[in-house]
Specification:
By secondary structure, the chain is α/β, with parallel strands linked by helices. It has helices spanning 32-45, 60-69, 99-113, 132-144, 158-165, 188-195, 234-254, 258-267, 282-290, 298-310, and strands spanning 3-6, 11-14, 18-19, 49-51, 77-82, 84-86, 92-95, 118-123, 148-154, 172-176, 198-202, 274-275. Helix 7 packs antiparallel against helix 10 (298-310). It contains ten helices and twelve strands. The structure holds NADP nicotinamide-adenine-dinucleotide phosphate.
Length: 318
């Protein structure tokens, strides 16, 4: 197993964690018992870095994790997030980084998660109306109160990261990063390195696209959030297929899966980063976990690097 130290405050996690969002939201239906089995298997494997957020479900994903955490809380590094507001019916209510909202969100998450601490607490999206110093100030109070161990931000820019660190050490930035989303390499990753912030790659499989099974919009269930995402429009799926073919070529010659190639490429990034592929299926979880045992040659990594670096992905991330 490859372990990554996120930040400089002692937070150590397996490089491949588990994104739990799709179990409750965005990517079509799923079954409670199956989800619990995936979480049990993850714990058994040592895939103990679990990622959720209050808004996944909304709110149901944290409740799901509470069930899976029962009896093994101290073995799991639990990450959750606040900052995007939704109502119980799923309506979108904007963002908030207001200190009172930070405190109330944390209390609500602790209650749903049936735990008395969160290992890594992220601000999910920045609030343009509240200085990040105020938000992180409130998050730092949660650390002082023992309710949170480490702090993180998600999708923050370099200036925000710098300002946040002036208030309290930030252990992790969680932002999208994969073979089709490499924009963080220019400025964000160097900033994280300079400030001693760990990096957690979300959607490391390109929301499933890089794994190869999503070729057409028909491959997604009605109501799947991806149908509204620019990269999952038919023309983009067709154009971006060239990147999948490059991955497939290496996967076939190695006898591994596309998903494993996509994760192995991320696992080879320097300095090391953590990633949280999302899945609702035990075979996928096992594949993703075992990507840590695969070593691609320098030539294979170079080929992926060059092709994806020069590839103009069609469609914005959101
Ligand atoms: N901070 C943020 O703003 C933010 C945004 C998005 C996501 N996230 C976090 O990041 C996590 C991962 O991102 P994501 O779920 O959007 O995208 P992802 O991990 O790139 O891809 C998930 C998709 O890939 C499929 N998949 C997983 N492993 C596979 C394999 N081995 N072979 C084939 N298909 C495979 C899953 O299918 P099944 O579900 O059918 O197994 C699912 O459709 C989320 O769960 C969430 O915790 C954070």
């Amino acid at each position: 197993m490859k372990t990554i130290e996120l930040g400089q405050q002692g937070l150590k996690v397996p490089a491949v964690g588990l994104g739990c969002m799709g179990m409750s939201d965005f990517y079509g239906s799923s079954a409670l018992q199956e989800n619990l089995k995936v979480l049990d298997r993850a714990a058994e494997l040592g895939c103990t870095f679990w990622d959720t957020a209050d808004i996944y479900g909304p709110f149901r994903n944290e409740a799901l994790l509470a069930r899976a955490l029962n009896g093994r809380r101290e073995n799991i590094t639990l990450a959750t997030k606040f900052g995007i507001r939704r109502d119980a019916a799923g309506g979108w209510l904007g963002v908030s980084g207001h200190p009172d909202y930070v405190k109330a969100s944390c209390e609500a998450s602790l209650k749903r998660l049936k735990t008395d601490y969160i290992d890594l607490y992220y601000q999910h999206r920045m609030d343009p109306d509240v200085p990040v110093e105020d938000t992180v100030g409130a998050m730092a109070e949660l650390v002082a109160e023992g309710k949170v161990k480490y702090l993180g931000l998600s999708e923050a820019d370099s200036d925000t990261l710098q300002r946040a660190c002036s208030v309290h050490p930030i252990s992790a930035l969680q932002t999208e990063y994969s073979l089709w989303s490499r924009d963080v390499e220019e400025d964000i990753l160097p900033t994280c390195q300079r400030l001693g912030i760990g990096f957690v790659a979300y959607s490391p499989l390109g929301r499933g696209f890089l794994a190869g099974a999503i070729r057409h919009r028909d491959d997604l269930q009605a109501g799947d959030w991806r149908l509204d995402n620019p990269r999952f429009q038919e023309a983009a799926l067709e154009h971006n297929r060239a990147l999948v073919e490059q991955i497939e070529h290496i996967a076939a010659s190695r006898g591994v899966t596309n998903a494993q190639v996509a994760l192995t490429w991320l696992l080879a990034r320097k300095p090391g980063i953590a990633m949280i592929p999302g899945t609702r299926k035990i075979p996928y979880l096992e594949q993703n976990w075992s990507a840590m045992e695969i070593e691609l040659s320098a030539d294979e990594l170079d080929a992926l690097d060059t092709f994806s670096g020069e590839f103009a992905t069609m469609g914005a991330r959101y």
